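Quick start: read one record
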Amino acid sequence: MDGFISAVTFVSRVAGVVGAFFIAAAVLIICDMVIERYIFNLTTIWQIDAVTYLTIAATFISSPYVLMTRGHVNVDILPLHLKPRARYVLALVTSFIALAFCVTLFVLCAAYWYEAYSERWLSNTVWRARLWIPLLSMPVGLFLLVLQYIVDIYCVMTGRTSPFGISARQDAEDVAREQAREALGGAP
């Protein structure tokens, strides 16, 4: 299982880098669009579609990295005030619900992607992009997210990580102090 955890962790990190490159590419394309349109007075054909597709791809592809690093918005008021056993149960219940949601979304997005691929859908813009290409990021990103959820659940169940990243010895004040220290860049 250690090999699986290492592989998923590695793939999640790569996915985070790919998502960052997609965002950087979208920014560069927006700059190109502004230059072409407002400086050279040229029409833009593909830029808006490309930026939209890259932003969606970055969102889906980098989602396992965000989960792995706990980079998502997290309201931890309830877990902070629960006893360790209740915190553990809450972490598992919410993780299994999130996993079920992501599996369902993966199945639906994979079917949607397959329909776009098999029926040769094209965008209804002048660019006429083949839609299966940008839509592929949805099932791929969700599949990687499902793998990351499986790793997270396994790590919580086996005690490798603490539920919600809060150890059994920490209380609400300890966590608040630690978060404040992190926000201030390690200052005392």
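Residues 2-183 form one domain.
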